Amino acid sequence: MYKYIILSIVLSIASFILYFQMKGQSIKKEQFQPLSYKQADGKADSVLALMTQDEKIALIGGDRSFFIRPIPRLNFPEVYMTDATQGVHTREKFKDIDLTNYQLEKSTAFPCPISLAATWNPELSYRYAEAIGEECRAGGIGILLGPGMNSYRISQCGRNFEYFGEDPFLRARMVSEYVKGVQSTGTIATLKHFVANNTDYYRRKSNSILDERTLHEIYLPPFKAGIDAGAQAVMTSYNLLNGEWCGQNDYVINGLLRTQLGFRGLVMTDWWSVYDGEKLIKSGQDLEMPFAVALKDTRQLLQEGKIKIEDINRMAKNILRTCFIMKFDNRNKYVFDNTMYENHESVALQTAREGIVLLKNEKNILPLQKETKTILLTGEYAEKIAVGGGSAAVKGFNNRIMFDELKQEFGTRITYVKNPTLGQIKSADVVLCSIGTEDSEGWDRLFALPDDQEKKVEDCVNNNPNTVVIVTSGSGIRMTDWNNKARAILYAWYGGQIGNKALAEIIAGKTNPSGKLPITIEKEFKDSPGYGYIPKNETLYQGWNEKEEKKHLVYDIHYTEGIFVGYRWYEKKNIEPLYPFGYGLSYTSFEYSDLAVGTDIFHEQGTLKVSLTVKNVGTRKGLETVQLYLQDVECTVPRPLKELKGFIKVDLEPGQSRNVVIELTTKDFSFWNPKTKDWFFEKGSFILQVGSSSKEIKVQKQIEL
Ligand code: BGC
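# beta-D-glucopyranose complex -> structure
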């Protein structure tokens, strides 16, 4: 009898465990193992040997807008690529192209990448990208056209939401994990847009003029990090660099990308961005997208001897090899059930929770107290979800709107009024005012808010001292006229389908905010390093404006600030920004102490261990991002007062303290020497500055190296 009882208990436990294991396994994901470079190279050689000249020429020009052309005779498959900047851009049909084989039932809308950068959490970057990679696999998408990693130089740039902010070190750390996350699923990560593509104002006509030191110290590090993390593809940009379009620029592709950064994979153009086939072929470019436009005369160029068949072989081989590394010739779609979407939505939620930045919280109005009886919600994005546009567009499923999520937290205490009277604003205990911008690829937008929104926020702050402003934007906006009067400000970026849940949790106090700005927000646009980039007598436009773009002359953007971009600029120029880089409040507070270095003598090959203690001295559990900035005290070249070289995010219970260690290498102390084309470590005094933002340095120490 006993035997039976024991046996049935054992069996029930086993089936219970099995049930949960199977639940966890419901995503039928194979652990993707790429083919080695060498093996894929050999395979590419064999296929290339069988290809006709026409097949090679056909391969190096894109097909049906988003495909690499198949070679059915040789069993080489077509490869579909799409954008997934903040979730997979599902294109049911694209200009008569049938995409039925590449349909995802739905795709998760994640918070935008600048919001991901605001989490300062590289591990989350991995999970975010892994989730996107999985959805690509489920849709049969071989190449993800991202991540975008251009730099936040101009707050007006329409694509800032797609990128990771202003600092090269932060961008590099986030991108590195992103690439590993995407490619762990067998989806290719494409580092874009190479290079110095930092405005969308007549983007095909902007000529970025900058020097090599600036390129290496500010604009190349995220690309280098992505390459070192194994990224298989790079997309060149629309702009010119120092007088030549990047997609056909020998210095950019053969020089910077392939020689200096060591990239061996597939290079593709951005869509309609190249004009001269001969230059393109000689530049190191491999694939013209979306079609062979500049490459239409390839046969003639061959006949005239202007290019050689070896050039075409090189291009075709880079395409073949990359596809073989990723086993596109021999793989299945992932099969997913709804658990995948649940997992992805929880990654999206966590990103929003950690990415929303609390900029201001006078007298701790947030989280709202139980005594707050009447909450008035008004403004632009209370009932609709803002999302960045262009190729990054994503629909999402289960989109949660702000009012509904706030109702979940506050029930009948909250009401939404689209256009409240001044009387309604005055009589509420608290006003939540939602403002923002909807940014997009293809154009830049004014730093200042549209007039109607500026009026709305001013009406709120002028008539109710308990106004909490919620900003939904992909970039910095002008807050100067009402910043002092707002009681609290939450910067929520584009939160994706579930971002409003995180926002409501923060307002209600269920989540303690921990986001930190990955950008500096200036008081006035004229304060910023990018000011003056629009040609004289011209103004910003809205919409794609491609006809005008065709007529527009190439215009120069001189990066006169050089390496002094972002906080490096404001500190050098002694310009007080409204909110500094790295800044963000919490509902608790942290103390920093005991800054120490492992040794004051730096051995060139080793690392320097910087340690300190961080303590949560408030009453709530919270996350803090400890930031380490370096200053080179005496140097033969101009260097910034601060350069971010390390950060670490810690989770602390009230009263808990932790010893954290940040490791620095020689490279962290070095600058780029254009003469030797290498990083140069110059001995001398350095100041290690550790704090909770670029402005609030809590502990520092001078060291001699
Ligand atoms: C964008 C790229 C994008 C491509 C394909 C271009 O307009 O600049 O970032 O990947 O379109 O959608």
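# post-check
Confidence is low (pLDDT under 50) at residues 10-28.
The CA atoms of residues 14 and 26 lie 18 Å apart.
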